[in-house]
Design a protein that fits this description.
Layout (H helix, E strand, L loop, with lengths): L1 H20 L5 E6 L4 E2 L4 E8 L4 E3 L6 E16 L2 E14 L3 E5 L3 E4 L2 E4 L3 E6 L3 H18 L5 E7 L3 E3 L4 E9 L4 E7 L6 E5 L12 E3 L2 E15 L3 E5 L3 E6 L8 E6 L3 E6 L9 E14 L3 E3 L4 E11 L15 E3 L3 E9 L2 E14 L3 E5 L2 E7 L4 E7 L2 E6 L45 H29 L1 H25 L3 H20 L8 H10 L4 H17 L9 H18 L2
Helix pairs in contact: 4-5, 4-8, 5-7, 5-8, 6-7, 7-8
């Protein structure tokens, strides 16, 4: 009996030790249930001490009347072997006058340490009892609307509520939780309309080390998604709410509870760019620098010159257009090579975009490359900034004979004789051989005899191979999907170049549906947005790619009823091409 008691005591000691080791960090904070408070109304001030036992000192309430309190409540729970405890002390207070008043920080003593909460500023406003009741009712409804569970919240956090067209705005979808055990489920992010978006890579979702406080209550914080947005349309633009499903308090004894939260939506006031933009302005917005310089200014005729144009800094670098440079008609100019060195972060898009032109002067003389102008709008100063490089004088050396007579047309290249055009007669007869007089018995004779049998065997093999391939209809369609979609996109590009916007979006719509039909092995008649979304998720296509597919389809559908103004046809075409290339890599 004594031995049994000793064993039980040892087991209890071990359990106590394990529980104490697995305790959470100590947290102490203060909060109020409403702010601002109407004159004549009451509110509750709470101090909460978590995961430790201790003594809490009340702050100075000299600016308020204590209607009731202090009242104390405590709780303890163990989830996944982790113990948590809560001690809450509450006061019901009533303001004495209108104004702004500060409730000082509270203090708690525990385990030989002193913990201090944050001071809370209370705004007391005028209001009758009827207004107070209406305010309380509205506050309650707003709290219920924003989140069904105060332990889990999702927020859209934006860097700026107002911006010019083309000015960068950073957006974060943030998850705030007070649960110790939380398993994330599906998250549905809205499509971003009216903006050009650049994703910021965040990798795996992790909890940040510091708490975020809401009305004095600490929440663990994790960033789910980050964007840099560039507005394309002026006016009030709305970023729609996102939804998330999670399971909380799951353990070995319980499946936990499923919780669904919806974030707030965000409205951004997009201002149009000021009037009076210079002719050289092509939509560049930010704090940018510009440079242009030829590699050399003295060359021989038909030698190449590299002209390098660079735009760097912070702004909408990914949307910059190719500079318009007027070269002399005697120069052969090739399409420039574009090099991007861009970094996307919460600070916006920084880096550089470089155009490298290959220019070949064909005739000797002196030629001028006129000044190259670049204009961008600086949202910080609200002004257009223009900078010019040049003019550049290029000296081309060569012989006078390369010049044509006055008024004669110049050839675009000079043709030189590469080799002699006479082939000499072979005089060495020792290398000659006699031709056979008879065909019978020659290698050609036996080759012709065997040819029907070889042809028949090849025909049988090819027929079997064709039958095998035709049996795999899905495989044939999947292999030919990329080739088919290129033809459809070419038709869309032709429509775009001809200015037929309606036909352009119709061709894009046909291309994306036909591509998904071929790649997913479904008849075109069975492809819908819902079916496409479900099948793409079933083959483990990542959520951002699926959302981009849905966005392309939605824009094409809207284009049938009204013109698309949120972005140019060229930008939309490039997004579609990039999407198809990404799907080609994923749907192999």
């Amino acid at each position: 009996m004594k031995k049994t008691g000793k064993y039980l005591l040892a087991i209890l000691t071990c359990i106590t030790f394990i529980i104490e080791v697995s305790c959470q960090d100590v947290v102490f904070y203060a909060s109020v249930d409403k702010n601002p408070v109407a004159m004549g109304d009451i509110f509750t001030y709470r101090t909460t001490l978590e995961n430790v036992r201790g003594n809490v000192e009340s702050p100075d309430f000299s600016d308020f009347d204590v209607v009731f309190g202090p009242s104390q409540s405590s709780s303890m729970q163990i989830v996944n072997g982790q113990q948590s405890s809560t001690l809450t002390i509450s006061y019901t207070l009533k303001p004495r006058s209108v104004g702004k008043f500060t409730i000082p920080a509270s203090k708690a003593s525990a385990q030989g340490k002193v913990y201090t909460s944050r001071a809370i500023e209370i705004e007391v406003i005028k209001g009758s009892n009827a207004q107070t009741q209406q305010q309380q009712k509205g506050t309650t409804q707003q709290q219920q609307k924003s989140s069904a569970d105060d332990g889990l919240k999702m927020q859209i956090q934006i860097s700026n509520n107002s911006a010019y067209i083309g000015e960068a705005i950073t957006v974060q979808y943030v998850l705030l939780s007070r649960y110790m055990s939380l398993d994330l489920g599906d998250t549905e992010f809205p499509s971003i309309k009216g903006f050009w978006s650049e994703d910021i890579k965040i990798g795996q979702v992790n909890w940040e080390p510091n708490y975020e406080y809401i009305n004095g209550v600490p929440y663990r914080k994790a960033v789910l998604k980050k964007y840099v947005l560039f507005p394309q349309i002026s006016g009030k633009q709305t970023i729609e709410a996102a939804t998330l499903t999670a399971r909380v308090n799951r353990n070995i004894f319980s499946q936990g509870t499923e919780v669904k939260v919806t974030s707030n939506s965000a409205t951004i006031d997009v201002k149009p760019l000021p009037a009076g933009a210079p002719e050289s302005f092509q939509g560049a917005v930010g704090v940018l620098q510009f440079s242009a310089k030829p590699e050399k200014l003295e060359v021989d005729a038909n030698d190449a010159i590299d002209l390098v144009v660079t735009i760097s800094g912070k702004g909408n670098l990914g949307l910059l257009k190719t500079p318009d440079i007027k070269f002399h008609e005697d120069f052969d100019v090739y399409d420039p090579e574009v090099k991007d060195k861009l970094n996307v972060s919460l600070g916006g898009v920084t880096g550089s975009r470089t155009w490298q032109y290959l220019v070949i002067p064909r005739y000797p003389g002196e030629y001028d490359i006129p000044p190259i102008e670049f204009t961008h709008f600086n949202p910080t100063t609200g002004k257009y900034v223009t900078k010019a490089e040049g003019p550049f004088t290029v000296t081309v050396k060569g012989e006078e004979s390369m010049l044509t007579e006055a008024g004669a047309a110049r050839a675009k290249s000079i043709v030189k004789q590469a080799k002699d055009d006479i082939r000499f007669i072979v005089l060495d007869t020792t290398k000659l051989t006699l031709r056979r007089n008879t065909f019978f018995g020659s290698s050609g004779y036996y080759a012709l005899l065997a040819l029907p049998f070889i042809a028949f065997a090849g025909f049988v093999i090819l027929r079997k191979r064709r039958a095998t391939l035709m049996a795999d209809v899905v495989g044939i369609r999947r292999k030919g999907a990329s080739k088919a979609v290129r033809k459809r996109l070419k038709a869309a590009e032709n429509a775009m170049n001809s200015g037929d916007s309606i036909l352009f979006y119709a061709e894009i719509f046909t291309a994306i549906y036909g591509y998904l039909s071929d790649k997913l092995g479904l008849p075109v008649a069975q492809i819908t947005k819902t079916v496409a979304k479900d099948r793409l998720k079933a083959v483990e296509i990542k959520e951002p790619v699926v959302q981009e597919v849905m966005y392309i389809i939605e824009v094409c559908e809207m284009a049938r009823f009204s013109p698309v103004t949120e972005q140019s046809d060229n930008v939309f075409y490039q997004r579609t091409v990039e999407l198809i290339e990404k799907l080609d890599e994923l749907l192999k």
